[in-house]
Amino acid sequence: MDSSIQLNNVSFTYPNGMEALKSINLSLPKGKKIALIGGNGAGKSTLMLLLNGILKPTSGFLNYEGTNYTYNKKGLKLLRSKIGLLFPESDNQLIAPTVYEEISFGLLNLYKDVGLVRTKTEAIISEFFLHEFANKPPYQLSSGQKKRVCLAAVLAMEPEVLVCDEPVSNLDPKYAQLIFNYLDKLNEKGKTILVSTHDVNRAYTWADYVVVMHNGEILNTGKPESVFKNKESLKKANLNQPFIVDFLNEFGSNFQDSAIIMSKWKKYYNW
Ligand code: ADP
To answer: Ligand 1 pocket, 237 CB below 6 A?
Structure first.
């Protein structure tokens, strides 16, 4: 399995002494849909900030497709053009006075050619159906619209890896599904997508690969079928088994074909 980002003995301690990540070794498979799951305080957000180079490990190192991260201006610029980060709170990501400027902001850091920035900004505004509020200040938008703008701004940079910290936590089920459908389309184009979530049902039905975190450590990694079989590591991480796994464990022997129930559940969950 080709890897995209690799973490080698990565530890991170906040200035107040809180050791948020403890000697993590992790390889994120390239081109996959990866769910990072764990309870509150497990270290998911910290890990994601390290992936995008916003935080630098206290010890250990990261590499992207075989090249070690470097934290000078040039290295970070290159890194952030390859690895995009969607913040959990849109309000922390949206800084420009209008939606249009929000989308062009990152592009202006990347390209000197203003005409090219304009073309790319307009293309992404079209792709995300943002015309009607392109000139509005982001604070006037709904949570779902803000998330769409954030995603558009990150994707305008055409990253190869998209890291999404709790992308649907404030969204209603329909909007949440729209975001996940969009992530699926990006993955079909070959992008590696990493999503953090507490939602084991979503992780089970959506992901190709799952990483379980607890207390700054990786407890388990692998395909959803094997990770979610392991009740012990889920319990340790303060997580439940996905409903359908638990249900079929209890009652599966009463049904002739559990696989049919499972596939109906997946369809129901991913409209
Ligand atoms: P998660 O995203 O899984 O909820 P976090 O990465 O946010 O976990 O937090 C991991 C640990 O680091 C927690 O104990 C949290 O309190 C601590 N932490 C997070 N951010 C900071 C910070 N800015 N300063 C100090 N400690 C922090």
So the answer is: no
